[in-house]
Amino acid sequence: MTPLPLLLLDVDGVLNPFAAPACPDGYREYPFFPEDDPPVRLCAAHGPWLRTLSRTFELAWATGWEDEANVFLAPVLKLPALPVVRFPPVPFDPAEKVPAIDAFTADRPAAWVDDAHTEAGAAWARSRTAPTLLLPSDPARGLTADMVTALHAWRAAL
Fold first, then answer.
1. How much of the chain is in helix, strand and coil states, percent to nearest 5?
2. Per-residue pLDDT reduced to its tens digit, 86-125
3. Fewest CB within 10 A of the end CB: N or C in the chain?
């Protein structure tokens, strides 16, 4: 059986619109970390959207949160524990995600949602033989219904 295409999800700027000046409508703030860290903003709609996407994609965390995404976010979004792409220790330059993403995806089709795609990531995507989608996110808005529609359309076109 052919594996599902991958859907690689960043957290900050995708599920957590950290750059918004205030908590956006439909989001709730979660104080997951010490008081000096800003709260994490999560949208109730993201859980159902991601669960629907998981019917046609294999979801994976592609974030500096790594395992903490499963500890903190998965329960709120009602997701199972997801595979985790291993990155260099935080903080790292966004371009440093590319080697880990490349190793994780191998030759599988992959959609990567991130608010900090780089030229290195774009070059990687262009060089792949497997279908690849880089979907940018506005870090002040996060994942939107239009982005979910684009992911479904890309998947349907494979």
1. 35, 20, 50
2. 999 989 999 999 999 999 999 999 999 999 999 999 999 9
3. N
Cα 143 from Cα 141, distance rounded (Å): 7
What are the distances in angstroms from CA 110 to CA 7, 53, 56?
6, 13, 12
Q: What are the structure tokens assigned to 23, written together?
A: 């908590």
Q: Which of 51, 48, 67 is nearest to 59 (CA)?
A: 51
> Which residues have C-beta within 8 Å of that of residue 105, sequence separation ≥ 6?
6, 8, 128, 130, 132
Count of beta carbons in the 10 Å neighbourhood of residue 67: 11
What is the secondary structure of 98-152 as a DSSP string? HHHHHHHHTTS-EEEEES---HHHHHHHHH-SS-EEEEE--TTT-S-HHHHHHHH
The string of pLDDT tens digits covering residues 46-58 is 999 999 999 999 9
Give the chain's largest Cα–Cα span. Answer: 48
Range 125-135 average pLDDT: 98
* Residue owning tokens 């994780």: 104
